[in-house]
Design brief:
It is built from seven helices and seven strands, in the order αααββαββαβααββ. Helix 5 packs across helix 7. Strands 3-2-1-4-5-7-6 form a seven-stranded mixed sheet. About 30% of the residues lie in helices and about 20% in strands. It binds S-adenosylmethionine.
Length: about 210
């Protein structure tokens, strides 16, 4: 895909094979892991590096597993996702909200409520990402971080066209563009924490101004 296309974000990038309301697709819980165990381990290890004692965390696009390390002890761990049973089964969450970000990108949280916002292996399902990232900037405290982790698996009918038609480099550029366009961030940093021989782990990290 042409670089200019990724920078201009034409609406066609966000088309999906199944454009019916997401509530239908996520009606039934899926108690499955979406990346390999070693990749989950690498993500947890990264979270352990950046989290601090008492940090308030928003796990956006959450499910029954948040990949958070056992320590340090955290403050609020809010989970927002599409399936109530999955969220109810997630032992790390202190707060649970079922909310369709594609229908309504406004986050149901106060400004400056969190130190971290994590989006784990789910970014490819957002059709209004800039609006969501503006909201992420709003709910993050100054110096807070958004961490988008990506790999190469997806629910094909629900992933946006851009993720089907581009390779990893372009996807990373696209996510970086979301953060840049949203405003409120110092920029975005890319980290490759792929363990090797299993699902890759690519991280895009934005720091709130
Ligand atoms: C591949 S799963 C990943 C779940 C979890 N983050 C993980 O790492 O295992 C995709 C998640 O995205 C969430 N999701 C998909 N579409 C969404 C939407 N429109 N609004 C909010 N969450 C959504 C679903 O609830 C689902 O839990």
């Amino acid at each position: 895909m042409a670089k200019a296309n990724l920078e201009q974000l034409p609406p066609t990038l966000f088309e999906r094979l199944d454009d019916s309301p997401d509530t239908k697709f996520y009606q039934e819980p899926r108690f499955v892991a979406h990346i390999d165990e070693k990749t989950i381990g690498a993500l947890s290890a990264f979270y352990r590096e950046i989290l601090f004692n008492g940090a308030d965390v928003l796990d956006l696009m959450s499910s029954w597993i948040s990949h958070l390390p056992q320590d340090p002890p955290l403050g609020i761990v809010a989970g927002l996702g599409m399936n109530a049973a999955e969220l109810a089964a997630n032992p790390r969450l202190t707060d649970r909200v079922v909310h369709d970000l594609n229908a309504d990108p406004i986050l149901p949280y106060a400004a400056g409520a969190f130190d971290f916002v994590f989006i784990a292996v789910s970014i490819q399902y957002l059709v209004r990402p800039i609006e969501v990232f503006k909201e992420i900037a709003r709910v993050l405290r100054a110096g807070g971080q958004v961490i988008v982790s990506t790999s190469h698996r997806c629910f094909p009918t629900k992933a946006i066209r851009a993720f089907h038609e581009t390779g990893p480099q372009d996807r990373i550029q696209l996510i970086t563009e979301y953060i840049r366009r949203a405003g409120g961030f110092r920029g975005a940093e890319f980290l490759d924490r792929s363990p090797g021989g299993v699902d890759p782990l690519w991280l895009i990290c934005g720091t709130r101004k």
